[in-house]
Amino acid sequence: MVIVPQLVGVVGLEIHAQIQSKSKLFSGSQVRFMSPPNSLVSHFDASLPGTLPVLNHRCVEAAVLTGLALNCTINKRSLFDRKHYFYADMPAGFQITQQRIPIAVNGTLVYNHFEGHKWNHGMTKSVKIKQIQLEQDSGKSLHDEERSQTLIDLNRAGVGLMELVMEPDMCGGEEAASAVRELQLILQTLGTCQANMSEGQLRVDANVSVHRPGDPLGVRTEVKNINSVRHLAKAIDYEIQRQMKVLRSGGTVINETRAFDSKSSTTIAMRDKEGLQDYRFMPEPNLPPLFVYETEDSVPAGVDSAQAVVVERLISCLPEMPAQKRMRLVETYDIQLEHSFTLVNEEGLVDYFESVVQKTKAKPRKVIGWVLDDLMRNLNLHNLNVSQSPLSPEALAQMIDLIESGRISSPVAKQVFQEMWKAPELPVEQIIEERDWWMISDVEQLRALCQRIVDGHPEAVQLIKGGNKRVMNKLIGEIHKVTKGRTDPVQVVAILEEMIF
Amino acid sequence: MMCNLGLWAMRPAHHRRCVLFLSALRAVLSANRTSWSRYRSKRELSSSAWTSKVPQVPSWEPIAEHQLPPATKISPELVDKLERLALVDFGSKEGVECLEKAITFANQLHAVNTDGVEPMDSVLEDRELYLRDDSVTEGECADKLLQLAKHSLEEYYLAPPGNIPLPKSEERSAVL
């Protein structure tokens, strides 16, 4: 009997990242989210005759920086082309893009994939990036079905985009989601894109197909309208299942564009686009080739050095990438890898953590719990980000120092944390003083307490004497209750043992 | 004497008419030798070795049929596709024939030997692409821009819903 290999999914992503710049790619109008309609539109953006594109220096830098961070080869010479199609939100009738020779090619995106939520089963994976190209964004159209019209806002028309085309190296929704999350972090670290999917700064389209390993790739469909990383995983997984069902029932997959419907978590076929589009690519005659120089020395004599884009200069500007940061955190502070992920994922958290570690005498491993559990839990509860935390790193460091020096116990510290959160203006000592939460360190007092408990629980004492060590916990618990947690369990155990044996 | 500038101002309805106008103009000019002949004699005086770079007789030769690639025939499906992609209306058989003749005319370029020559797609290829500083210098002219639109609503341009589908191919072939 021939064992037929299982059908597997094949996923390739096409990502459009909006470049974080003050002005647009080819004109001097402002780039801003949410503005009065058509207020950020220049004569060029409105495609008025006689206007010409002028390339934005910052956008070229952004594309090169992104290419460098993703291990791409930067093309010293790249060209611009026109991609023709008609749609009301693109008044020129064509989009200026880079189809023949884009600015960066052949890169890799390295990401960590965790199976479900099993943090200790993480694997490092990579996906090949075919190319990164600069292109224009189109305007926004608001469809008014009732009155059979479309309202066009060109504020977004002409904004610079980096299109990242990935090879179909992934096989499922979870992998794609992990890859996109890592890309978001990288872009945010570089400052080239804010990568917020819900605000449209990062748009991801998935090309999905299924096949049996070894066979040629199957017919693919393009899934659009994905507004978050979670939706991306759902959309891809649904589409893979749908295609498998189609094939298993003897049908064929049609090459089409499908939209993801978040309400039903399914993909729906979009209106038929009249077969394959022919974009009639043509070189952009108004833009000469774009040159990017390797080193300061390679900039030719006639070119203004300040004007030129020099790769060497940009390499020295590259900040620490998320992957490097994680490794450094693990090595420097001896924390777990999964902790480093949480630290790096939250903006400002690494700085907060490092600040506390610097100000306290405690080991970083002791600090990490407070930062990742208590701090994050409270921030999430009140929907605040790290910069808005009422508890400063100094205050937290002071509190941790008090635990380390044995002046308050850990359980009490949890309560102190909550009080500090509510009243950040009060010094730590004052909060503890007002509630009389200092650890009982007077040995006589402790002995007296223990004696009382031992006298009050003769049966328990008998059991302990008989060898049942676990009952000791009950006694410790009693003391804990009586003193409202202001005792050091280690000391208490020592005293109790001394008394009993 | 002033040339009758009215001749220049009139745009010929058909390109062949241009020739008639030009010859009329030549007649007008030759009638008035003053400025023209002064110019000519001046040149003759300044440099006797002056030869014009403009050939005195036409120097081009018609390209032989065999040098051209085979004539392209445009199928109705291609007409459909081109009409959809470029939003042009071929209108009639004559329109399609005109296009076929234009293709044949352009095919003369195939006779040029381009061995070892890199294709040029911009006459600016030896110029530095100027990179603009990233600063806001334009915008805030919504009212002016919207004045140009036939239909607008509040501050939005108005457009029909989606792309209007073109007539089906059956209707097409009826016209052709």
UniProtKB/TrEMBL annotation, chain A:
Catalyzed reaction equations: L-aspartyl-tRNA(Asn) + L-glutamine + ATP + H2O = L-asparaginyl-tRNA(Asn) + L-glutamate + ADP + phosphate + 2 H(+); L-glutamyl-tRNA(Gln) + L-glutamine + ATP + H2O = L-glutaminyl-tRNA(Gln) + L-glutamate + ADP + phosphate + H(+)
Main subcellular location of this protein, as a coarse class: mitochondrion
Top-rank EC class of the record's enzyme: ligase
Ligase found in the keyword field: yes
Cross-referenced Pfam families: GatB_N, GatB_Yqey
GO cellular component, one term: mitochondrion
Keywords recorded for this protein, A-Z: ATP-binding, Ligase, Mitochondrion, Nucleotide-binding, Protein biosynthesis
Molecular function terms from GO: asparaginyl-tRNA synthase (glutamine-hydrolyzing) activity; ATP binding; glutaminyl-tRNA synthase (glutamine-hydrolyzing) activity
Domain of life: Eukaryota
Transmembrane helix keyword on record: no
GO BP: glutaminyl-tRNAGln biosynthesis via transamidation; mitochondrial translation
Cellular compartment(s): Mitochondrion
Cross-referenced InterPro entries: Asn/Gln-tRNA_amidoTrfase_suB/E, Asn/Gln-tRNA_Trfase_suB/E_cat, Asn/Gln_amidotransferase, Asn/Gln_tRNA_amidoTrase-B-like, GatB, GatB_C_1, GatB_Yqey_C_2, Gln_synth/guanido_kin_cat_dom
SUPFAM superfamilies: GatB/YqeY motif, Glutamine synthetase/guanido kinase
UniProt domain Asn/Gln amidotransferase: residue ranges: 351-500
Documented EC number(s): 6.3.5.-
Primary role: Allows the formation of correctly charged Gln-tRNA(Gln) through the transamidation of misacylated Glu-tRNA(Gln) in the mitochondria. The reaction takes place in the presence of glutamine and ATP through an activated gamma-phospho-Glu-tRNA(Gln). Allows the formation of correctly charged Asn-tRNA(Asn) or Gln-tRNA(Gln) through the transamidation of misacylated Asp-tRNA(Asn) or Glu-tRNA(Gln) in organisms which lack either or both of asparaginyl-tRNA or glutaminyl-tRNA synthetases. The reaction takes place in the presence of glutamine and ATP through an activated phospho-Asp-tRNA(Asn) or phospho-Glu-tRNA(Gln).
Homology family: Belongs to the GatB/GatE family. GatB subfamily.
HAMAP family associated with the record: GatB (MF_00121)
Subunit structure, interactors included: Subunit of the heterotrimeric GatCAB amidotransferase (AdT) complex, composed of A (QRSL1), B (GATB) and C (GATC) subunits.
Protein name per Swiss-Prot or TrEMBL: Glutamyl-tRNA(Gln) amidotransferase subunit B, mitochondrial
Species in which this protein is naturally found: Danionella cerebrum
UniProtKB/TrEMBL annotation, chain B:
Alphabetical keyword list: ATP-binding, Ligase, Mitochondrion, Nucleotide-binding, Protein biosynthesis, Signal
GO molecular function: ATP binding; glutaminyl-tRNA synthase (glutamine-hydrolyzing) activity
UniProt GO cellular component terms: glutamyl-tRNA(Gln) amidotransferase complex; mitochondrion
Record's keyword annotation contains Cell membrane: no
Signal peptide: 1-30
Binding partners and assembly: Subunit of the heterotrimeric GatCAB amidotransferase (AdT) complex, composed of A (QRSL1), B (GATB) and C (GATC) subunits.
Protein name: Glutamyl-tRNA(Gln) amidotransferase subunit C, mitochondrial
